[in-house]
Amino acid sequence: MAENRGKPHAIMISVPYQGHINPFVNLALKIASKGFSITFVHFEFVHHRLSKAHHLHCNKTQVDIFSEARESGLDIRYTTISDGFPLEFDRDANYEEFWGRVLHEFPSRVDEFVRKTIKSDPYLLHFLVADTVFSWPATIAEKYNLVNVSLWTEPALVFTLAYHVDLLIENGHFPCKVNNIHEEVNYVPGVKSISTRDLISVSMESAQGYNYTMLESVFMAFEQVKKADFILHNTVHELEAETLSVLNKYQPNYAIGPINFFKNLPTYTVSKSLWSESDCS
């Protein structure tokens, strides 16, 4: 494998939800079009859902969602990783149990996967591209001496609210109680003014109380992202210049969006939708 010596290789792992999968797939295609190698990792249950939605064979040795992209000359490898639950486990109905395992047990699975990937081809220049929402990227990147790239799939304004969660806590707005949902938040750097009712949904008190698993997720993820080498945002710089300028005072942040509309890429060849699609024309 010495022919790969010095070639950049991105290990890309997305959160298993549609709004995260689409930009991750498109970014993988974009990076590959620049001559990089990619290993794209889906959760096993996501692969299974994609296979069912697009009437593909469910055996991962038979289905490779990037096969056509690779035939076009892009170096994208595709694999899956288990979250520890059986495929038939209802992750939506058991959201807190599922996400609790993603927070606390899934990182060891990623660690083992990254170790084996690096060992299988030590000549590549490996780096990590992980979803900001994950709780483990900095820990694993540091362990294997990888450049740590964090991809935030939402507007930068949402990012900076979570990034400055300490200020929200200090002002009594995180978590946000029901009787505080119409207060003004005007103290977060990069955000002129926003109502508490427009804060990230996981911070809101519901009739059932707080979702403590997701509150923990926010804390863990945004402690990790502060150690990223740089952060990519699925946004347009001109629309969020002030917010990005503030974030760049802490660490490098780049607007690369809208990722879903990259031009001249074979995005149509990759099955991304978790639901069946039909042509209504």
From TrEMBL:
Domain of life: Eukaryota
GO molecular function terms listed in the Swiss-Prot or TrEMBL record: quercetin 3-O-glucosyltransferase activity; quercetin 7-O-glucosyltransferase activity
Family: Belongs to the UDP-glycosyltransferase family.
Protein name (record): UDP-glycosyltransferase 86A1-like
Annotated organism of origin: Sesamum indicum
Organism phylogeny: Eukaryota, Viridiplantae, Streptophyta, Embryophyta, Tracheophyta
